[in-house]
Specification:
The chain is mostly beta strands and about 350 residues long. The chain has one domain (about 5-330): 5 Propeller (Tachylectin-2, Chain A). The protein has 1 helix and 21 strands. The chain has one helix at about 10-15; strands at about 30-35, 40-50, 65-70, 80-90, 95, 105, 110-120, 125-130, 140, 155, 165, 205-210, 220-225, 225, 245-250, 255-260, 270-275, 280-285, 300, 305-310, 325-330. Strands 5, 6, 7, 8 and 9 form a 5-stranded antiparallel sheet that branches. A hairpin with a 7-residue loop joins strand 8 and strand 9 (about 140). The longest helix is centred in the first third of the chain and has 7 residues, at about 10-15.
């Protein structure tokens, strides 16, 4: 949904038609990564603040400084519990600013928070912090993950006990600056410099298996290739379907569902494959556009139902960098296709 019409929106009417309400209202939260740990739902969002930074297409106004962990006993809860600060940028030696969308994972009773941040050289890296509790506080490793870059880590545990990280985001997420394997700092103020041409293959998210200790990549990251209906990779100009940011992976009926945001066209989409590395065939939309520029999500099974955790800017009346986390039930049809969700009703 473009930003220009924001001032024409009747937010009282929008709230009445919305399929869900914010899970917390005393702070702004976004990019929710949800998991069931120890019988409770834990949500790992980014924590939006108004730092006074100017709006730009590099996302400089998304100036988040810390992480809070939300928890719920049930998806029927009308409000999530805020468990306080789990990690602050000042406690991460390698990080300078912009604690963007995180994720978490559990292994052998230990909890790991994965997060992107801009290092002191202005380059996004991905870090990891550990805790003995799902709500933290988390203690960060002194260095970023070796070989990590860009943003939006999402960690998936497969049925065989292996863990994979999916990550990446274009424009302000800098993924396009790594096309040669080395960071390209030419035209630093341009979010679209170094992108492929519209008729070239779209940039892909990345995936890497994690080491047994959950602290490093166990391999060089690989492309997450999304194919069209003819088995051809999506093109960069296919803005309604190509990857932009916000990777997520879940498994349903033995199939791997890679989901993501299309960014500047504001859809949450998904593609289906037979392997955690893909390739994945584009399958449709999960969520139609929300109020606000960004769209970022997670998909989590709770009991025998599935849920989409997402955000919009309704709490801040359309201020795009001050968002609120929401949840809605996610359903599949008989063929395993996800039924598209309309966030404010049809």
């Amino acid at each position: 949904m473009p930003e220009d019409p924001i001032h024409h929106i009747n937010f009282d009417e929008l709230d009445r038609n919305a399929i869900s309400q914010p899970l917390v209202k005393h702070i702004y939260t976004a990019d929710p990564s949800a998991h069931v740990f120890e019988g409770k739902i834990y949500i790992y969002p980014s924590h939006d603040i108004d730092a006074g930074d100017a709006f730009d297409d590099l996302g400089s106004h998304f100036a988040m400084e810390d992480y809070r962990v939300l928890s719920m006993n049930s998806v029927e809860d009308t409000e999530a519990t805020d468990n306080g600060t789990a990690l602050h940028v000042k406690d991460v030696p390698w990080a300078a600013k912009q604690m963007w969308a995180p994720d978490a994972a559990e292994k052998n009773g230990k909890y790991y928070l994965y997060f992107p941040a801009k290092a002191h050289d202005g380059i996004f890296r991905i870090g990891v912090a550990g805790s003995n509790q799902p709500y933290g506080p988390f203690v960060a490793q002194p260095e970023a993950i070796k070989g990590s870059f860009s943003i939006d880590p999402a960690v998936f545990k497969d049925d065989d006990g292996k863990y994979y990280m999916y990550f990446g985001g274009i424009w302000g997420g800098q993924l396009q600056r790594w096309r040669t394997g080395v960071f390209n700092n030419e035209q630093p103020e341009s979010p679209v410099a170094h992108l492929p041409e519209l008729n070239e293959q779209a940039l892909c998210a990345k995936v890497a298996r994690l080491t047994d200790d959950m602290l490093e990549f166990d391999e060089i990251p690989k492309d997450v290739v999304i194919l069209d209906e003819n088995g051809q990779p999506l093109l960069q100009g296919d803005n309604d379907r190509r990857f932009f940011e916000a990777s997520w992976m879940h498994k349903y009926n033995g199939k791997y569902y890679f989901s993501y945001s299309t960014g500047d066209t504001h859809f949450l989409c998904y593609a289906i494959g037979d392997d955690p590395y893909g390739p994945f065939t584009y399958a449709g939309r999960i969520l139609e556009p929300v109020v606000g520029w960004t769209s970022h999500h997670s998909i989590c099974a709770v009991g025998n139902k599935w849920y989409l955790f997402y955000h919009d800017s309704s709490l801040s009346k359309g201020v795009t960098h001050l968002r609120c986390v929401k949840v809605a039930e996610l359903k599949y049809d008989a063929d395993g296709k996800i039924i598209t969700i309309h966030p404010y009703g049809k």
